[in-house]
Structures are given as structure tokens and as C-alpha cells.
Amino acid sequence: MNILNRLFKIGQSEAHAAVNQLEDPIKMTEQGLRDLRLDLDKSLHGLAEVKALAIRARNEGESFRTKATDYESKAVLLLQRAHKGDLAPAEADRLAGEALLKKAENDAQAARTAHDQSTFEQSAAQMDQNVSTLKATIGQWENELRTLKARVTVSTATIAINKQLAQLDSSGTVALLERMKEKIAVQEALAESYGEIAQAGKSIDAEIDQALGATGAGKASEELQALKAKLGYSE
Description:
- Residues 124-151 form a coiled coil.
- Helix content is 94%, strand content 0%.
- The chain is built from four helices and no strands.
- The chain has helices at residues 2-22, 25-84, 89-170, 173-231.
- Helix 2 runs antiparallel to helix 3 (89-170).
- It starts with a helix and ends with a helix.
- Residues 15-22 have low confidence and may be disordered.
């Protein structure tokens, strides 16, 4: 059982590591911002609904208070008419009592709507504060996202450069350059040797020509002595 638990934990840690490697910081941050904006839209919609309920409660309260005042005015008029003799006192009392009951009902409704209005306004104030906090958070993370994108650009370029530099030694590029230098040196030496051979050939030709030239001069000198002897000019 312990072995199974250990294997499960190992597999779980490897799964988490694989997920971490698949997570792109920029994409994850952008997704987080999208989620925050959705939350902001929902919060704004909810705030608008709560404010609408507060406005409705306020309007209803004003209506109930107006009705209560109106019923009170009617009760007063009924009693005044009875006092003047225009209406039977008993009937006036009955109708004035009914009007006061209606006034009490509207006063109760006005009190209820006033309580609802206060509750809705408090909720709206709290939600408004939450919306402001959410907006500030979104603005902060938008700035963080721009910073992250810049950092990713720099890190990506740095990784590419360092990777190229690392591959210089690992791929044998330096050794290849050294071999090329050696090969060029061999070619230069070979060219120099061919030049020396060509120069040596020219030297041999010069020696041959010089030797031949010396033989001809000796023969010319002999012929000159013979001519002088013939003419009797020789010593």
C-alpha cells in the first residue's frame, strides 16, 4: 500500500512538472486578465441591478409616503365635513378610520421600502468599492503583462544567443576553423614550394645558357688566334 501511495505521489509530481513546463507565462497572464475582465463585467452588471433596486425602493417609498399623506388629508377632510354638518358623524368617523388605516399601511410600506433602499445602497457601495478594486487590479496586471512581454523578449533573445554560443564549442565549430586555417597554411606552403621549383628550373636554364655561352666564346677566341697567325700578327 505504501508503495502504491509513493508511486502515485511520484506520478502526481511528474504530472505537475509537465503542466508547469507547458504553462506559458504570457498566455496564462492574458487568460487571467480575461477572467478578471469577465468578473468586472459581471460585477458592473450586478452593481447596476442593485442600484436599480435602490432607485426603485426610493421611488416606491416616495409613492407610499405621498399616499399616506393623502389618506391623512382625506381623514381630516371627512372629519371637517362632519363637523360642518355636511356628513353624518358616524359615517365620517368610519370613513376617516378607514383612511387612517390606509395611511398606516402606506406608512408601513414606506418604512419597508426605506429599509430596502438603505440595504440596497449599502450593498451598492460595497460592490462599487469591489469594482474599483477590480479595476485597479486589472490595470496593475495590464502593466505587469507589458513588463512580462518585454522580459520574455529579452530572455528569448538571450537564450538564442547563449544557445548559439554553446553550440559553437559543442558542434566543433572552433575545431573546424582551426582545420581550415591549417589547410590554408598547407596550401600556402605548397604554392611556395611550386614557386621554388619553378625558380630552380629557371636557374638551371640560366646555368646551361651560361655554360653554352662560355664554350662559344672559347671557340671564337681560338679562331681569332688562328686568323692572327695567318696574318703573321701572332706572337
